[in-house]
Design brief:
It holds the Pfam family DUF4238. The protein is α+β, with helices and mostly antiparallel strands and 422 residues long. It has helices spanning 13-17, 75-96, 104-121, 123-133, 138-147, 153-157, 224-228, 263-276, 349-370, 398-404, and strands at residues 7-9, 27-31, 36-39, 42-45, 49-52, 59-61, 66-68, 71-73, 160-165, 175-176, 181-183, 208-212, 217-222, 249-251, 256-260, 280-283, 322-325, 331-334, 381-382, 389-390, 407-409. Helix 2 packs across helix 3, helix 3 (104-121) crosses helix 4 and helix 4 (123-133) crosses helix 5.
Length: 422
């Protein structure tokens, strides 16, 4: 049997290289749980800090090898993960250098499944799959991963997206062995939500998901109901929390971008990354691996004064129902939370009133705290009526923007699935 595809990177080499400066070929690589060895009757911990290239980092032999009796099969690495590692780089680079152009739709529908698979393919993600779905062995866990490849897409597609920028910070983003990171300010390290393979549920209202795109850019996803109402119980499930739903729509011009992070904010994000890692973190500079040394406070709830990852609420609006008409007269509709017209929650006046009141209060408090400058911007559009370039963040411009907005259908339960390989 060929030994090809045996050395399995659960964080791909191409992705790791996004975090290395030009001319640099190795990471500072920190083992948070070094093994204890015994030699000549003496017990000692292995070295915890290394200086390795991407080929050696975040990899494990036969992580994706299935065994059927005496037969080994590595087709999952070759074909399934091979597909994502072929299509993923272009999508990640598109959002790292975000532009609203003809490539945006393909980049979005590639990035969401890529992130979903990336969250599941790590040792931490595979352990979570085994525990959650009670799979018997590696073969069934890997089969389950392929079946659930779009598990998180609907939830993330209905979130508020922002792309934050560390260009103005001397410290850059680090990466971990579980690079799709979840943070909930009420799920502190050591809580039952953060032990071992556990992560805060992405459907909890206050859970943010973020994914470093490069050393300077990070994609942050925030549940819409939290961005509208941060006064609610952070552990409440968001509306319509069901995974693996049919595809909904995404308004790509609502992505908040050009939020420039302070160095303190970058260090705080790196601290979360390190605390949510299972075992390994890597950085271009050694000192970036120890963000805890440079923090004013390690209080989990107060990072960024409690709003480190929060998008600017002044860009958020109420409502959000989406309607699509097709040739032949057929039409479809979704609520902002993905409900269909026949489902409970599609029309929920009480929720809308509650969110509207909380959102207006939050916008007022935010402006008083952070001042008149917005945290990031939405994509500018050109009015076809008068040719004037205007910001989509301005209330008076919304009707025109809705008419000019671009919506993209998200991958979901009904998306075509690649053949499962064993």
């Amino acid at each position: 049997m060929s030994t090809g595809y045996r050395h399995n990177h659960y964080v791909p080499e191409w992705y790791q290289k996004q975090f290395l400066p030009a001319g640099t070929t190795r990471h500072h690589y920190l083992d948070l749980k070094p093994d204890r060895r015994t030699s000549n009757g003496h017990s000692f911990l292995r070295k915890n800090l290394h200086f390795w290239g991407p080929k050696q980092c975040f990899a494990q032999d036969d992580l994706y090898t299935t065994r059927w009796g005496h037969v080994e099969n590595r087709d999952i690495e070759k074909f399934f993960f091979g597909h994502f590692d072929t299509t993923g780089p272009k999508a990640v680079k598109h959002f790292a250098n975000f532009q609203f152009n003809s490539d945006a739709g393909e980049a979005l529908t590639t990035l969401l499944p890529y992130m979903s698979v990336q969250k599941l393919r790590t040792p931490k993600g595979l352990a979570w799959l085994r525990k959650t779905f009670k799979t018997r062995d590696r073969n069934s866990t890997l089969t389950q991963l392929q079946r659930l490849q779009n598990l998180f897409c609907a939830i993330w597609g209905e979130a508020v997206w922002q792309i934050a920028d560390a260009t103005h910070s001397a410290t850059k983003f680090i990466i971990s062995d579980h690079p799709v990171v979840t943070y909930n300010r009420e799920c502190f390290p050591g809580s039952r939500w953060c032990i071992g393979e556990n992560d805060p549920d992405i459907r909890f209202a206050a859970t943010h998901t973020y994914f470093p795109l490069s050393s300077d850019k990070v994609l942050i996803l925030t549940n819409l109901n939290w961005a509208r109402d941060p006064y609610q119980n952070p552990m409440t499930l968001r509306p319509n929390p069901r995974f693996m739903r049919s595809a909904a729509l995404f308004k790509i011009t609502d992505i908040q971008h050009e939020r420039h992070l302070t160095e303190e904010e970058v260090i705080e994000i790196n601290y979360i990354t390190k605390m949510r890692a299972l075992r390994y973190v890597a950085a271009a500079k050694r000192e970036w691996l120890f963000p805890e040394k440079y923090l004013r406070s390690k209080n989990w709830r107060k990072l960024g004064d409690g709003y480190l990852l929060m998008p600017d609420p002044r860009h958020i609006h109420g409502g959000g129902k989406m309607f699509v008409g097709y040739k032949g007269g057929r039409s479809e509709s979704w609520s902002e939370y993905g409900h269909r017209p026949w489902e409970g929650g599609y029309e929920d006046g009480a929720r809308q009133e509650r969110e509207w009141a909380a959102m207006q209060k939050f916008k007022t408090e935010w402006a008083a705290t952070y001042g008149p400058d917005y945290r990031g911007v939405l994509y500018d559009v050109v009015s076809h009526r008068d040719g004037v370039r205007r910001s989509m963040g301005e209330e008076w411009h919304r009707e025109e923007c809705e008419r000019d907005a671009h919506y993209i259908k998200l991958p979901g339960e009904q998306a075509r699935r690649r053949k499962l390989r064993r």
